[in-house]
């Protein structure tokens, strides 16, 4: 067994309020303690105590801006750990129509730290594999970027990736709603940056949900049609 204290981060994540705060930060945002307290359903002093433990444990970082401190996940490895736990966590019963709509929206498209997750992310991953841009992904493992000259890879900006050192160009990240890997790593970050920057996806206010714009809905529908309506079919490239 590795000479590491696995119980330490597990204990930090295992407390319900801290788990809620970590999940709220999965979209890569930095949030003040007041927002995290509200999201976790705890008082401000309780939230401050929990956040101090998360910072001391290396799971969260804190940056002061004016009178406020803003908290963020310490890095993509923390996001991967939380997402992996979400994939094996039991599903809470849906107790309201609003919760049902929220769950459906997040399952469709959401940010997973700095990359796209959800059904649309898997559609894109399968289309890129079909185009020959990516080798089939394996959850939790570095992937292989085969070619970036195809129309879809070019449209998503994968031909402009810049080596960032230790971070892999592609990594398979297990999607907790679909139980299959989507694209993470530098390629995943570039894909999300491109889709949001080009106005195909819009960020939701208050959570990590992503909503296709009118242009985005047409683009993804054309992508699905070009792939024969399945995730394993041959992919074409919708117009911008």
Automatic annotation (TrEMBL):
Parts of the chain that traverse the membrane = none
Provide an example Pfam family for this protein: HTH_20
Domain HTH arsR-type residues, every copy: 1-93
Cite the PROSITE patterns for this sequence.
HTH_ARSR_2
**Record InterPro entries:** ArsR-like_HTH, HTH_ArsR_DNA-bd_dom, HTH_Metal-responsive_Reg, WH-like_DNA-bd_sf, WH_DNA-bd_sf
Q: Name one GO molecular function term.
A: DNA binding
Q: Which PANTHER family match?
A: TRANSCRIPTIONAL REGULATOR-RELATED, TRANSCRIPTIONAL REGULATORY PROTEIN
Protein name, per record? Helix-turn-helix domain-containing protein
Native source species: Agromyces sp. G08B096
């Amino acid at each position: 067994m590795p000479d590491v204290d696995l119980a330490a981060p597990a204990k930090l994540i295992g407390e319900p309020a801290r788990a809620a705060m970590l999940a709220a930060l999965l979209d890569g945002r930095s949030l003040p303690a007041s927002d995290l307290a509200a999201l976790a359903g705890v008082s401000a002093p309780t939230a401050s105590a929990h956040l101090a433990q998360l910072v001391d444990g290396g799971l969260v970082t804190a940056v002061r801006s004016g009178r406020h401190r803003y908290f963020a996940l310490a890095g993509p490895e923390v996001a991967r750990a939380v997402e992996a736990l979400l994939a094996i966590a039991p599903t809470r019963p849906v107790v309201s129509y609003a919760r049902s709509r929220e769950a459906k929206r997040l399952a469709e498209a959401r940010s997973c730290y700095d990359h796209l997750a959800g059904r649309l992310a898997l559609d894109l991953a399968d289309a890129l594999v079909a185009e020959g841009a990516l080798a089939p992904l394996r959850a939790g493992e570095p992937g292989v970027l085969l070619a970036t000259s195809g129309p879809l890879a070019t449209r998503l900006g994968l031909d402009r990736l810049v080596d960032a050192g230790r971070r892999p160009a592609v990594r398979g990240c297990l999607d907790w709603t679909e139980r299959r890997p989507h694209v993470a790593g530098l390629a995943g970050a570039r894909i999300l940056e491109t889709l949001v920057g080009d106005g195909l996806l819009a960020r939701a206010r208050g959570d990590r949900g992503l909503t296709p714009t009118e242009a985005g809905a047409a683009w993804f529908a054309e992508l699905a049609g070009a792939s024969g309506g399945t995730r394993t079919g041959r992919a074409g490239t919708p117009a911008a």
